[in-house]
Amino acid sequence: MFPAFITTILYSISTICATRSAKMLGGTEANFWRITVATFSLALWAYTFGLGMTGIAFPLFFISGMIGVGSDVFLFQGLPRLGSRLTSLLVQCGTAVAGATIEWLWLGTRLTLPQTMACCTILVGVAIALAPGEHLTFSRKQWILGIGFCVMAAVGNGFGAVLSRKGFAVAATHRQPIDVGTAGFQRLVGGLIICGLALLIVKRREVWAQIVHPEAPRVPNSVKWKTAWPWIVANGLAGQTLGMCFFNWALKTTPTGLVLALVATTPLVIIPFAWKFEGDKAHRRSVIGGAIAVAGVIALVLVAKK
Fold first, then answer.
1. Is 294 helix (H, G, I), strand (E, B) or coil?
2. Rounded CA gap, 240 and 39, in Å?
3. Which residue from 151, 118, 126 is spatially nearest to 257, judged by alpha carbons?
4. Is there a contact between 118 and 299 (Cβ–Cβ < 8 Å)?
5. Residue 223: DSSP 8-state
6. CA 266, CA 18: separation in Å to the nearest integer?
7. Are 239 and 8 in contact (CB under 8 A)?
8. Of 108, 231, 295, 300, which is least packed with CB atoms within 10 Å of its CB?
């Protein structure tokens, strides 16, 4: 469970960086460049100490990345519409439920009753802490689109996680063990293709908009990148480089439902970061929900050891 805990910390840092960079560059472009940073970083590892893009499980990790990492295109569309805390809540909780359900239907992995109860406690705590209150105001369009994007991101992340776990199982069965860094790189290669296609579509739309409305004011790319690049690099290293490695490590040894339930506490860990960088102070409900979720995490760790 230790790798899943570290993943949670890294994903929390990554989400704050993602929100900042998405507001500066736009969600699709910010997502593409952070995946690019992470892919280059893990490529150095994979081709120095790992297997590169070889191995019996490569197709599974590649497809896992196309679905799981590629679905972050939707995550980055949810962030500017619903904010980091609510988006993280919907995606992380939805991913835990989707991953456990898909693994049960496909691989037949069932959680024990105590494990299921602990997972539910974590998700309930997260929901109490971060459910939208009266101070959150969204237009109907923002609300519908934001929730829709988050649901698609959650299903994609859950399916991708199950495929990664299947990839580790296939590698072990054929006695071709794969390290978590190489597995992360192979996933990112698949995800980078999807994110690149999404960026191409967005850029073509921007070019067309410039042709149709040449008088519209625009911020030069040099100005946007001057402030955005530190957040892009930090996001790529924290989330999709180190975070990906620890996430794969967790999936390699622990059922998907348990890993994703623990990672679902990411929105709670975001609270102090959001307070520091976004001025988003936690309310009493956040503290109560956090206490419930932490109790669920402790229970999950205890029952997972049995």
1. helix
2. 8
3. 118
4. yes
5. H
6. 14
7. no
8. 108
DSSP assigned state of 237: I
Count of the separate structural domains present in the chain? 1
CA angle (42, 43, 45) in 5-degree steps: 65
Q: If residue 275 lies in a helix (H) or strand (E), which one and from where to where?
A: helix 266-278
Rounded distance between C-alpha atoms, residue 267 and residue 264, angstroms: 7
Mean pLDDT (whole number) for 109-132: 80
Which structural domain, as residue segments, surrounds residue 298?
2-304
Mean pLDDT of the chain: 85
CA distances to 42, 50, 163, 250 from 234, rounded to whole Å, are 14, 24, 27, 22
Measured over the CA atoms of residue 80, residue 288, residue 262 and residue 160, the dihedral's sign is negative
User: Taking the complete model, does pTM exceed 0.85, yes or no?
Assistant: no
Nearest one of 270, 254, 192 to 11, comparing CA atoms: 270
Residue 151, φ and ψ in degrees, nearest 5: -65, -45
Q: Render pLDDT for 77-94 as a digit per residue (tens, 0 to 9).
A: 888 888 777 788 788 888
| Neighbouring C-beta atoms of residue 212, cutoff 10 Å | 8
- Where is average pLDDT lowest: 51-60, 86-95, 134-143, 288-297? 134-143
Please write the tens of the pLDDT for every residue from 266-283. Answer: 877 887 877 777 676 667
Query: What's the sign of the alpha-carbon dihedral 192, 193, 199, 200?
Result: positive
The Cα–Cα gap between 284 and 288 comes to 6
Which residues in the chain belong to E strands, given as ranges? none
- 3-state SS class at 86: helix
